[in-house]
Structure formats: C-alpha cells, structure tokens
C-alpha cells in the first residue's frame, strides 16, 4: 500500500475534526491544530502521489508525514494522559500512532514500491 493512500484520508480526518471542534465549541486551538496538521499531511500526500505518477519516491513527503504523525502522537498522547478523554485526544493519538508505525515501515522498506514498467 502506498503512503498517499492513507495520508490523504488521514489529513482529511484531521481537517474535519478541527473544523468540527471549532464549529461546536469555538476552539481556535483545535481549528489551528487540526486544520493545520491536516493540510500539511494532505500536501505531503499530494507530493507523494505526484512523485508516484512520475515513477519516483518522494522521501521529502515521507519525512513530512512521519514527523507530523510523530508530533501528533506525542502531543495528543500527552493530552490523553492528562485528561483520560478518548475524544479527541485518545482517538487522534491512537490513529497517529498507527500512522507513525506505517510511515516507519515505509521508510524501512524504501518508500513506495514501484512496479516494473509494462511493455
């Protein structure tokens, strides 16, 4: 599975969560954090998809994705430990931890695998 297949939906979930929290509670922190990190991930997924279409790997995109997921795991994990609230801290920390593992796997295996060109 290619990183952009998960990164773009992951980014959209974060953007949606940030917008939802802002609309529901007026939280500017959620708006900035959710929408900001989500847009960074969508951009990284877009870079990766464009590189894949050119039959290349985008290690810059994979680096951005990994750093963002690690940061979200850390920040939201700390928030979950402080509040014990599943929504949103526990959910985002768990999802980000899974994505971090996926990105580490992609880094360890050399990025997106490109199939041999059909003749």
Describe the structure.
It is a single chain. It is built from four helices and no strands. With 119 residues, the chain is mainly alpha-helical. Helix 1 runs antiparallel to helix 2. The two termini are 23 Å apart. The model has no long low-confidence stretch (mean pLDDT 93).
Shape: elongated
Structural class: mainly alpha
Mean pLDDT: 93
Please report which band the strand proportion falls in: under 5%, 5-15%, 15-25%, 25-35%, 35-45% or over 45%: under 5%
What is the straight-line distance between the termini? 23 Å
Uncertain segments:
none
State the major sheet: none
Give the C-alpha Rg: 15 Å
Instruction: Find the count of extended strands (DSSP E, 2+ residues).
Output: 0
Assembly state (oligomeric): single chain
Order of helices and strands: HHHH
**Helix content range of the residues, please?**
over 70%
Helical stretch tally: 4
Protein name: Protein FATTY ACID EXPORT 6
Family: Belongs to the TMEM14 family.
Keywords: Membrane, Transmembrane, Transmembrane helix
Pfam family, one: Tmemb_14
What topology does this entry show?
Elements lengths: L2 H23 L2 H26 L5 H25 L2 H23 L11
